[in-house]
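During the second year of the project, the team shifted from modelling isolated chains to modelling whole assemblies. The rationale, set out in the original proposal, was that interfaces cannot be judged from single-chain predictions alone. As a representative example for this report, we include one of the complexes processed in the last quarter. Its constituent sequences, exactly as entered into the pipeline, are reproduced here:
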Amino acid sequence: MERTIRKKRNQDEGDAHMAKTIAQINEKIKAGSVVVVTAEEFTAMARTKEPGQLAQEVDVVTTATFGPMCSSGAVINFGHWNPGIRMEDITLNDVPVYQGLAAVDGYIGATAESKYDCQYGGAHVIEDLIAGKELRLHARGKGTDCYPTKEIDTYINKDVVNEFYLFDPRNAYQNYGAATNSTSKIKYTYMGCLLPSFGNVTYSTSGELSPLLNDPYLRTIGLGTRIFLGGTQGYVVWNGTQFNTAKERNSHGIPLGGGATLAVIGDAKEMSTEFIRAAYYEKYGVSMFVGLGIPIPVLDDDMAGRLAISNSEIETYVFDYGVDGHPAVGKVNYAELQSGKIELNGKKVKTAPLSSLSVARDIADTLCGWIKDGRFLLSEPVARFPMDSSVEPLRQRRAGQDASEGAER
Amino acid sequence: MKKRFALRFAPGLVEQPLVSKLVRAYDVDVNILNADVSSGRGGKLIVDLVGRTEAIKQSVSWLGGIGVVVSEIVKELVFNQDSCVSCGGCTAVCSSGALQMDREWKLVYDASKCVVCGLCVNACPLRLFELSMERGA
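Output from the structure prediction step:
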């Protein structure tokens, strides 16, 4: 597949008069003459126009998602106490903050839970800080010659700490399996409440508006890509964890579930609770809705073809969360999922989204506005992400046992 | 007029035909919205009583007289809609159609369709639903 893409790209490079560069697009942004539309608008345009024509007419397409993303968190530097403390046990509103860094650096993970209230966690701490609230900081240290203080109990807000930035190891899942439940009991999962006997199906991407579905081989999205994150500008800083480019793809290049992911970073002090929201999933735990938008340059016919992807061309499997290993029980496309009903085992089953398409649309529109106003320039990736990355499970093994031996178990 | 009540009764009353009695003796229509009744354990009905004001009043008084604990449901479901992000998680469990996504993918709540099943309370990741207070009747 990679070979065919490369071949296509060479053809595009041959048609140099057709292709645009990111630098040229940025000149248009600065001149106020850039043409930018959302991915949904672009897909609608593609019903009547060929990719070649669209590549000429449109410069940038904005994509977005606003869904629960557990692998999120924030770095905080609290500032030094006087006399100093080496914080070795830290909580914010009773939620544990990871302390294994330098004296007053901490990392608050979105899914960390309060010691006293399982419905309040790291995501709520992050949302409350962004909202400008005062949070109680408690920290202990053993006391050292250079950091003699052993305990502090005080209040912080985002303005009194030095740094407070979001750093999410895995966001923007390219695609994700839909979920259902074959058992006779309701299942409470990170995919929402799954009613018994295949009573419903939930799904969690914004379909044709979703960032990595519009650039399925990550041609334009890589290390250093400037993005919309939580209401402000952020950056892609690595591939996300569980980055999987070896996933089975359909004829449109769309991975069937999972796929690529992004690690992202951005200044949480500048973010808005409109685009960062804490969530609690019953009998599962805390997660966080993260608003993420990525502008994709329409460099050539190939990119225009990718960006024209429509919901009916984006497929995913339906997995049964009632059975260990979550076996697939069906395959659907997003036009079907978004219609409100799909057919599963010959029966109509109600579908429900878990990620907010309406907020994702707000993000895509906002990003369009920033680009049109010349406030947001596109960035060339500093490096591209690996296209041969797969995901392995954790196996029981002896020290020194090689991977293939473990795989035979 | 129409009023919504929660009727709770002890195991001994499970065998009584409460609904048909209301219909015949008091000329009220009874719409059962939710029923949790089992022999030996007592039960709870959520009903709409539809009829003349006086007839509903007499029905409630008769039910009270035979030992049914009657409380009027003041508000079906309290929904803090201002904080809603329209994720749609609640629509996964709402079979009455009270919670639905509109054409713009915004969540719409139609209180008149709600059957007070309460599944949305736990389905909402932002915890924006609460079952309402009942008022003794």
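The interface with chain B takes residues 66-68, 119, 188, 192-195, 200, 202, 277-282, 287, 289, 340, 350, 352-359, 361 of chain A (CB under 8 Å). The CA atoms of residues 231 and 271 of chain A lie 5 Å apart.
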